[in-house]
Amino acid sequence: MKIIVPLTIRRKLLSMILFFICVPFLILGKLWYDQSMRLMEQNAVNTGMQAVRQISGGLDSYMEGLENLTLPFLTHHLTQKFIKLTPLDEYYRFSVTRQIQEDLFPALNAGRKDIHNTIMTNTHQISASNLGAAYSLERSQAYLQLSPAHGRFGIEGISRVHGVPVISVYRLIASTLNFQPAGVLMLDLNLSEITRIVSNFKYEEDDASAPVSIVDTSHRYVYHPDQQQWGEPIPATLSQRLDGSYEGYFFEEIRGVQTLTVYYRSTATGWTTLSYYPIREMTALLIQQRNISVIVGLSLIGLALLLVGGYSMTLTRALLRLKNHMNRAENGDLTSRADDRRNDELGSLNRSFNKMLTRIQQQNEVIYMKQLQEKELQIQQKDSRLLAMQSQINPHFLYNSLEIINSYAILEGNTSISKMTASLARLFRYNSQDGTAVVSLEEELQHITTYLSIQKERYSELKTVLEAEPNDLMQVKVPRFTLQPLVENAFKHGYDKPMLPPSYLAITGRVVENHYCVHITDHGHGMSPEKMDSLNQQFEKASSSDSSRLAHASIGLWNVHSRIVLHFGSPYGLRFIQSSKEGTTVELRLPMNKQLYYVPEGC
Predict the structure, then answer these.
(1) For a surface tag, which of 88, 123, 313, 532 has the fewest beta carbons within 10 Å of its beta carbon?
(2) Closest residue by Cα to residue 225 from 257, 258, 191
(3) In the predicted model, what is the mean pLDDT of the chain?
(4) Which of 567, 570, 571 is nearest to 477 (CA)?
(5) DSSP 3-state assignment of 57?
(6) Banded model confidence at residue 576, pLDDT cuts 50, 70, 90
(7) pTM strictly above 0.85
(8) Pure H helices in 175-278
(9) Cβ atoms of 129 and 138 closer than 8 Å
(10) d(C-alpha 2, C-alpha 12), whole Å
(11) From CA 37, how far away is CA 46, in angstroms rounded?
């Protein structure tokens, strides 16, 4: 059988740190490093692409400037004379060639340090050059053969003229008469201007190996950081990669260093500009930051483990102590108290636990007293029922006897006896019903009206008043036999004992906020203020946790008050409003329905 050991809080905390801090930290660190590398590579590609495009644009502008520079000289009168020369015009050829070398070429080369040599030749193999006619004729013949295939303006790759590396460009010379090509103008350019253009876009000024090179259409280096490579063919692997597209990038190893190479080919010159970015230099700072972040992160995790481990030990010890107190309380020891001297959440938890035990003790005492009160009320109700049973007469015998008396009274024409007999029958019939039932206040007032009609037959001077809104009476519930004991108490203590003739009795009802007040008022002899206050205090005690019987109240008043409290709860019940020699007013507070129990102070 496999036994599962529950994890402690300390182990859970350590597990959460490992799985929710360490592992995500490592994963996020790896993702951050990879994403940073990709972003840096992309940034390097974008930067390199922008640089090679700018360099290529500078070279295009340079060549376009040369093309614009030579345009006026193509239509010059000396140029037009030169293209018409033939080998037969020896003297005239010498004169025109000399004027071109002395006047036209210096004007073309004025202020241009990049023009190394200027050559002009026509279709009749007549040449003029700054460096001599023989050299000029040899080179011009080659350009005359290339020019028809390459257009009116062309750029040739790097070559060496008297040991100087030059770039050669040419312009076709057309006759102004028939606009047909009749010669060519060639410029041998040194690399000073190209070097200046490239130097403005160097990746690092102090780097011995400048990361920019230029390749012509024949895949030879026009420009390279190493001048020994000028005019040399590029590696075969590089040549294959440059044949694929006009722009792009790739990674390669140059002199043992992993390098990012970005290239762009100009559509104007056909030259490809390349820029080199050493990966090691790009990622050196990133790798350093990564190593520092890993060291700091591991140190923080180790410190967190130590702090959390130590704190978890104090936490678990405090929780174990609280658990022991809870076990004692569970076994019935409500006197156990936890340490409430801490100022953190555990201290607040311990204080809440102590308050809870205190409240449980108080509630137990209240429940115990409530149970005692309910038991006493039940015993008192049983006593009341026993007294009622002892005073009962056989209902059928009594009703039959009252019917016979009523019949004789009617035969004799005595209406007073007939009315009293009928009222007495209704009174006994109402009294014979279940005394524990709850009826409407309307039904209870009908019963008390019958009772007062008998009393009025006895006391002709008695004036009775019943004031209540009929619509409210059906909304008020009251235990059966609630009003009769109060009315009888008024006759007994207000009129009979002081031997006063009953003169006035009023029953008024009205709604006060969410409850209903019934006032029973007589003009008999009342009680002293001290006794009235004593009775009211005992009524209030009977409504609360004090279940002792009223010391000075009659059993009728006690039963009425206790039955109301038992049915509806506090603060409903009896209360004396006023009592003096001029009369007494007792107040009966009732709910509008059984669900409503709150009543503000006073009616």
Answers:
(1) 88
(2) 191
(3) 79
(4) 567
(5) helix
(6) very high
(7) no
(8) 192-199, 236-242
(9) no
(10) 21
(11) 14
Residue 429: closest CA among 452, 457, 451: 451
What is the spatial distance between Cα 208 and Cα 547, in angstroms, rounded to a whole number? Answer: 107
Per-residue pLDDT band at 182 (split at 50, 70, 90): confident
C-alpha closest to that of 360 among 392, 330, 403, 394: 330
Q: Which pair of tokens denotes residue 146?
A: 């290339």
CB–CB of 591/572 below 8 Å? yes
Cβ distance 83 to 97 under 8 Å?
no
The Cβ of residue 137 has, within 10 Å, a number of other Cβ atoms equal to 16
- DSSP codes of every residue in 270-288: --EEEEEEEHHHHHHHHHH
What is the per-residue burial (b if ≥16 Cβ within 10 Å, else e) of 291-304? eeeeeebeeebeee
List, as one string, the DSSP characters of 103-164: IIHHHHHTT-TTEEEEEEEETTS-EEESS-HHHHHHHHHHHHHHHHHH-SEEEEEEEEETTE
Residue type, position 286, single letter: L
- For residue 313 the two structure tokens come to 């030990």
> How far is the C-alpha of 432 from the C-alpha of 451, rounded, in Å?
14
Peptide bond before residue 571 is cis, with ω within 30 degrees of 0: yes
Q: 441-458 and 415-431 helices cross at what angle (nearest 10)?
A: 140
Q: Are strands 504-512 and 463-467 parallel, antiparallel or unpaired?
A: parallel
Copy the structure tokens of residue 205: 């000024």
**Side by side, which strands form the sheet with 212-215?**
221-223, 212-215, 272-278, 257-265, 247-254
CA 135 distance to own-chain centroid: 83
Amino acid at 6: P
